Amino acid sequence: MTHLIRATAGALLIPAMAWLAAPARAQAQETFRIGFVNPDRVLREAQPAKTAQAKLEAEFLKREKDLTAQGDALKAASEKFEREAVTLPESQRAARQRTLIEQDRDFQRRRREFQEDLNARKNEELQQVYDRANRVVKQVAEAEKYDAILQEAIYINPKHDITDKVIKALNASVSTPSSASSPTGGK
User: Fold this and answer.
1) How far apart are CA 23 and CA 29, in angstroms?
2) Positive/negative CA dihedral, 100, 102, 106, 111
């Protein structure tokens, strides 16, 4: 009989202990906050990205115009040669053809160098924007107590998208000169 009483008391105590422990477990559980940043939007809409793009355009505009002019001149010379080739003596035709081939090689080389230089500078500028954006994302995440910030997702609920906050913070960091001297705003 005492064995039956102990078993019954034990059976009643287990659910009671679990019921009492439930609030303690709920308090111990933390919520996991996830945010999302769209890097493409940051590169399109943030002022530092726009400034970098304008800087690149200004830096490469003259070379681009020179290349366009060289290409137009080469095209015109080529068309003129094709019109006149039938009436030219063989020696002149061969000499002009060699000249056009040399000019085309020079043009292709200059265009390739221009594209390589532009891509290298674009990568440098974008890396600076990405570094700044990552610092701002980290600041927003820490300030708002996010546990994870994603940059790529198949689907994200718009309520988790913090891209606007990041763009706003990036734009604010550009307009405030003191951010360059702060430990988190400068390099």
Assistant:
1) 10
2) positive
CB contact burial 32-47 (16+ within 10 A = b; e otherwise): eeebbbbbeebbebbe
Longest CA pairwise span in the chain (Å)? 128
pLDDT (tens digit per residue) in 163-180? 999 999 999 987 654 444
Mean residue pLDDT across the chain:
83
Q: Is the pTM of this model over 0.85?
A: no
Q: Quick one: three-class SS letters along the chain? A: CHHHHHHHHHHHHHHHHHHHHHHHHHHHCCCCCEEECCHHHHHHHCHHHHHHHHHHHHHHHHHHHHHHHHHHHHHHHHHHHHHHHHHCCHHHHHHHHHHHHHHHHHHHHHHHHHHHHHHHHHHHHHHHHHHHHHHHHHHHHHHCCCCEEECCCCCCCHHHECHHHHHHHHHHHHHCHHHHCCCCCCC
How far apart CA 59 and CA 46 sit, in angstroms, is: 20
132 contacts: CB under 8 Å, gap ≥ 6: 48, 170, 173
